[in-house]
Each structure stands twice: as structure tokens, then as C-alpha cells.
């Protein structure tokens, strides 16, 4: 009678077949065009064998089994394992982690949780995961938010925010910060600093939330608000904008940071970055017994046993960027040179 080659339990090559199938699934996932076909054919051949294929030489005599596949079959039989598969699992989940981390607002904990829950694609997530509104927007606009913005377009977004701000209150000042201020040719997002001489953060917050943002929505410039954070690093509004009148124009990530005049120097340093430069200049301050944050440069900061801060200290300077460099005893560095 005919041997039942399809019985996974009793097939003498069951382990080999299962391992090759995993390799094949990997190639399917990474959208390799040919290898899944080659694997499928080799697996079909193995299923038809009624003895265990032990060596590469034996394997390569079978139809549809090339020499590389034959080597793999031998490795699986003799080591009960395929090393190449470990690597694919590694690059696979690394790449997936990186991809999920690229979603706006998604951190390491959320990304790994999704991977552990078995989600592998954006389609999976959109169809089956419990997503917040922002996560859904982050996925739907993944390409947009991960595409760098040409400098000239950042300038156009700036013009719109500027003229809108001026029509609300001629004293409002809008400065584009981040990579744009450092002179970058392309920017990851658009960072706006908003100030007004003499205005407190509360006053600025009211202008932003009650007037500027609604007006920018009304012009079909802002598309969505994503988050308002009000923390140590000041009040920041996150959202997305698009140049009006360009159907299909990409959504761009925008940040608004509200800064009272007396903190402008420190905020300029913080929001110009880059982040590595910030870390190094803060370290320098701390080595000199001072402390630099986005609100100012401080002295006489009292620290506890584990160097944890006990007091805020005394403000040395907040308003002038140049003066902060002076007090730190380092030559002023223009924004274009603040790339570490
Ligand atoms: N910043 C920081 N530390 C962080 C994030 C930001 O010090 N973890 C500061 C320095 C950044 C500035 O805020 O330059 C703006 O943050 P962005 O994330 O927008 O970074 P960039 O504008 O520098 O670069 P990109 O072009 O990618 O937006
Ligand atoms: Mg930026
Ligand atoms: Mn930003």
C-alpha cells in the first residue's frame, strides 16, 4: 500500500519539514519572491519520502532540492536545529520592533507588548489590536510622519503660523526651532517656539488653545491635535499640519512650545538641540556646580547623598542664550554648530 506521506506525526522527515516550513514562512513574510516557492517544492518532495533523509548528498538527489537546501536538511537532522532560523527570528523581531517604534507616541513597552501578542503588521494592529486614537493616526500616517520634510516646506508652514499669530496678536513671536534652526536641509518635524514679551505661560496657553490653534484648524492647516503635555519641560502641543490647498499634501508633525520671555534663552538652547548637544552642555553645567534646564541656568543647587536635587537653586540667567554660554565659560556656539 501507499505510505501516507502527509501524516505529520509519522512522516520520517517531520522535523525537517517543520523547520523548512518556518524558513519558508520567514521568506514569505519578508516578501522574498522565489524562495518560498523553492521551499514549498522541496517540502512536497520530502513529504513523499518513506525514509528519513539524513545527508546533504541524499537530499540533493531528490527532485527540487538544490545544494543549499540539501545542506540545511543535513544540518537539521544532525543538530536538530537550523542556525539560520535563529538569525531570521532575530532580525525579524528587531525590524518589527523598529517599525512599531516608528509609530507616533509608541514606546518600547507598547511595541514589545504588541509583538508578544503576535501582531506582525499594521493591518494586524488596525484590525485586531486595541488602539488609542493617536496610535491609529500614527499608523495611518506612518509614511507621512516618517518622511523628512524639505527645509523650504518647513518655512512655508512657518509663514502660515507666523501670519496667523500676528493677526491674533502682533506681539506674538514665532520661531522655528529644532533641526530647522540648526540649518538642516530636511527636518523630522516642525518645532515652533511661541513667546510674547511680558506674557506668562498661562497667558500664552490661553492664546494658543483658544485662538491660535482653532484658527489654524479653520484654515485647514492643522489636521489633528495629538497631545498637550505640561511638564517640567514646559507646555508643549503636538499635532499634525498640512499645507492648505494642496490636496493629498503630506501630514507633518508639528510641536508648539510655549515660553515666557524670561526663560527664552534657556528655551532656545533646549529647543535648538540637538539632544546630544543638550546632554553634553547640561553635563558641563553640572560639573561646574550649576544646573541647566529649559527654564534657566541655576547655581547653588543642593544635592543629597545620591546627587539627587534637594533644591532648585538660585537662578543665574534664563532670558539670554548668549549670557548662558558666558556664565558656563564656553564660547557661544551658533545653532549650526550644535550637532554632536
Ligand atoms: N530635545 C531634547 N531631548 C529629547 C527630545 C528633544 O533635548 N529627548 C530637544 C532637542 C531637540 C529639540 O528638543 O533638538 C527638538 O526635538 P525634535 O525631536 O523635534 O528633534 P530635532 O528637531 O532636533 O530633529 P528632527 O529633525 O528629527 O525633528
Ligand atoms: Mg524637530
Ligand atoms: Mn519636535
UniProtKB/TrEMBL annotation:
The active site is at residue 72. It is found in: Nucleus. Residues 11-339 form the DNA-directed DNA polymerase X domain. Belongs to the DNA polymerase type-X family. This is DNA-directed DNA polymerase. The lineage of its organism: Eukaryota, Fungi, Dikarya, Ascomycota, Pezizomycotina. The chain holds residues 340 to 679 of 1098 of the full protein.
